[in-house]
Each structure stands twice: as structure tokens, then as C-alpha cells.
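TASK: fixed-backbone design
INPUT:
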């Protein structure tokens, strides 16, 4: 079963315009969606086909010039309803924060201070550098919602770095 995020992204792309699974995969790649949502190319293909089988999309074989046939998918009324329900349900979910480095912080007292400071400093630098990289990408997005998403991510990385600075000071004091 696909994640809700994957379904929302696929159905949303098809609301914008009909497209093949290959085109959809390229759209997700161009929008940097994979940076924020786990959705592989095979998952796009599998889920587009599944959504078609479930009646949320329809596929039409199209032949353009010398190119091989491809299936172009369009969203159905049932798919638009599903999209609306998924959007509403997802927006109502409790907020969840899931940082991969939390086990490091949970066990930081088990390493010596020098190592602990170095680990926290590495986390701080990683988050600041990532915020800067994301900031550099923001101007390349034409869509307001894409820019807003990237701005939120950048601000989150900076907030984490700031929190880690305070945590290090609280844990070890000022050097």
C-alpha cells in the first residue's frame, strides 16, 4: 500500500495535467520532492498503475511519431474525491518530528565531553550547511507552494542548529 504522501503527490500531479508515469517521475524529480518525501521511481510507476486499477485514474495508450507507445494517465472524478479526502486527513494529522540524529542526543552523556562537543558541533554544522543549500535552491522555484515548502525546511534546519547550540551550552557549559 502506498503512503498517503505518495498518493497525494501522484493525484496532485494529475490534477495539474495528464501525464505518463515517466513524465510524473520527472516532475517529482524537478520539484525536488524526493528530498522531502520518500518516493522512488519504481514506486511512482507501481502506484500510478495501482491508482488506475482502483479507478482513481484512467490510462490511455498514446503514440507520438516514432516514439514507442506510452500510457498517459488522467485523474477521474473518483480520484479528485480521493485527493480531497487525503488532503483533509493529512492536514488534520498531529504534527510529527522525526530527526535521525535523536539517538545521538539521547546517548550523548555516554561519551566523553570532547567527543560529545564534536558530535554536537558536527550536527550544528550539518544543519546550517543544509539550510544554506536549501536557501540557494529557493529562487529556482516558480511555484509559491514549492518556495514556501523550501523556506519552511530552511527555517527548520536553522532552528535545529540553534537548539543544538543551546543544548550544548546547557549540557557542557561555556567552553
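OUTPUT:
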Amino acid at each position: 500500500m502506498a503512503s498517503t504522501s505518495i498518493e497525494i503527490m501522484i493525484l496532485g500531479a494529475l490534477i495539474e495535467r495528464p501525464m505518463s508515469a515517466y513524465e510524473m517521475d520527472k516532475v517529482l524529480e524537478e520539484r525536488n520532492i524526493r528530498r522531502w518525501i520518500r518516493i522512488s521511481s519504481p514506486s511512482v510507476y507501481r502506484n500510478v498503475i495501482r491508482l488506475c486499477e482502483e479507478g482513481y485514474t484512467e490510462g490511455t495508450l498514446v503514440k507520438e511519431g516514432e516514439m514507442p507507445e506510452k500510457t498517459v494517465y488522467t485523474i477521474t472524478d473518483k480520484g479528485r474525491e480521493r485527493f480531497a479526502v487525503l488532503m483533509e486527513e493529512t492536514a488534520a494529522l498531529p504534527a510529527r518530528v522525526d530527526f535521525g540524529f535523536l539517538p545521538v542526543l539521547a546517548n550523548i552523556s555516554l561519551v566523553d565531553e570532547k567527543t560529545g562537543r564534536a558530535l554536537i558541533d558536527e550536527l550544528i554544522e550539518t544543519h546550517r550547511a543544509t539550510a544554506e543549500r536549501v536557501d540557494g535552491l529557493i529562487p529556482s522555484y516558480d511555484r509559491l507552494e514549492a518556495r514556501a515548502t523550501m523556506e519552511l525546511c530552511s527555517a527548520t534546519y536553522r532552528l535545529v542548529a540553534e537548539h543544538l547550540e543551546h543544548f550544548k551550552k546547557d549540557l557542557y557549559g561555556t567552553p
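COMMENT: The chain is about 65% helix and 10% strand.
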